[in-house]
Write a structure and sequence with these properties.
Belongs to the UPF0410 family. The protein is an all-alpha fold and 88 residues long. It has one domain (5-82). It is built from 3 helices and no strands. The relative contact order is 0.21.
Length: 88
């Protein structure tokens, strides 16, 4: 089951917004949150496919958002770890 461009935008926006809420940040704005969510989808899809659970493109919209959010949280955590910024 493949996602179209609109579905990827929705996944990116929702995953980026959820990551901002989970990581106690104010977010970076609409477009950067979307980019963080899409990069999170790549990271989450890579991790989940290597764990045998299937990537983002192999599930429905809700599970894809969950996988992308997990990837975006990992990305944000690594970014904060590298930069030393714990509050943004």
């Amino acid at each position: 089951m493949g996602h179209g461009i609109i579905a990827w935008i929705i996944i990116g926006v929702v995953a980026g917004w959820l990551t901002g809420k989970i990581m106690k940040g104010s977010g970076f704005g609409f477009f950067v949150d979307m980019i963080v969510g899409l990069c999170g989808a790549l990271i989450g899809g890579f991790l989940f496919s290597h764990l045998g659970a299937g990537g983002v493109n192999e599930h429905g919209l809700i599970i894809s958002i969950v996988i992308a959010t997990i990837g975006a949280v990992i990305l944000t955590w690594l970014f904060r770890l590298v930069t030393g910024n714990r509050t943004t």
